[in-house]
Amino acid sequence: MKPLFKGKHFITLQEWTKAEIDTLLDVSKQLKHEFYSNKDTTYLKNKTAFLMFFEQSTRTRNSMEAGLAQLGGHATFLDTSKMQISHGESAKDTATILSSYGHGIACRNCFWGVGNKYLREMAEHSTVPVMSLQDDLYHPMQGLADLMTIQEVFGETKRVKVSIIWAYATSHKKPISVPLTQILLFPRYAMDVTLAYPEGYDLPEWAIEQAKQNALDGGGTFQITHNMEEAFRGADVVIPKNWGSWVNNQSDAVVDDLLESYKSWKCTEEMIALGAPNVKYMHALPADRGNEVEDSVIDGVHSIVYQEAENRLHTAKAVMAMTMGDK
Ligand code: CP
């Protein structure tokens, strides 16, 4: 397998053309098939990548670590609190040195106003591809897996009605990067996208403008509502998920009066019943069960969250296989 995008940074899918994303999806599907067929997939034999995490992770860390092992390479997990970063070492020095030791650098840094800039600074100084494992603005690995899952379920994505809906949660103040990535990506695939959220949970204005432009360019549509039920009505896919009020309020506090006033924004069986008869429930996970969603929905027949999570493995492998190669 040729690394067709050798050296290309993977920080936002907005910087990847549709043809390039289609190739990543084709490779993901091939790798999924080969995984189930127990085929040798050592396309990155002896290649190494460093996985830097400023935050917790289950899916992202393990899909990357397992994925690179399955490709014949090795991933080193780096807890940044144990690195010299915690003593102030710069992104430039970290990236320059790690890139001299291996073939890829991946990083999760979701600090508001910091994460994306940090990844960009590393990319500027790295001689190997820098892959985002989520930042304050984007989660491209998640977006790619979500798109793969929707394609698997629906085939043609044109006119698939997808609603990205804010939901109440108290587990932590979640980044905006998942919904922001989805509103940018799905209209490029001609989906009819609705973004629903209560007042105060806006996404950045530049992202809304970009989503509208992507819809114009890609044949999709994009609309915003502040009415939760309207977003569920007739939807083929619902993605009810919490995100923090970062755009309007940069406090790290998880629970505040604004959040508590929107407890009713929950994905219940009644809400699912408003969707298309075969509506699919998606969530990047981890879900705040009982707050964002009722157990009977996430564990029910409409839920495809485990397929979505599994596809994180196949898409992560595709990104690594296509961007990492011989030095
Ligand atoms: N969806 C996702 O990124 O999961 P983790 O936070 O567990 O990596």
Describe the structure.
There is one protein chain. With 327 residues, this protein is an alpha/beta fold. It has 2 domains: 138 residues, Aspartate/ornithine carbamoyltransferase (Rossmann fold); 169 residues, Rossmann fold. Helix content is 39%, strand content 14%. It is built from 12 helices and 9 strands. The strands form 2 sheets. It has a 5-stranded parallel sheet. A 4-stranded parallel sheet has the order 2-1-3-4, sandwiched between helices. Helix 2 links the parallel strand 1 and strand 2. Helix 1 packs across helix 12 and helix 5 crosses helix 12. The mean pLDDT is 98. The protein binds phosphoric acid mono(formamide)ester. Phosphoric acid mono(formamide)ester binds next to helix 2.
> How many domains would you count in the coordinates?
2
Biggest β-sheet, characterized?
Answer: 5 strands, parallel
Q: Helix and strand succession?
A: HEHEHEHEHEHEHEHEHHEHH
Task: Assign the CATH architecture of the largest domain.
Answer: 3-Layer(aba) Sandwich
Radius of gyration, in Å, reads 19 Å
Determine the CATH superfamily of the largest domain: Aspartate/ornithine carbamoyltransferase
Strands, total number: 9
**Strand residues, percent:** 5-15%
Distance between the termini: 16 Å
CATH topology-level name of the largest domain: Rossmann fold
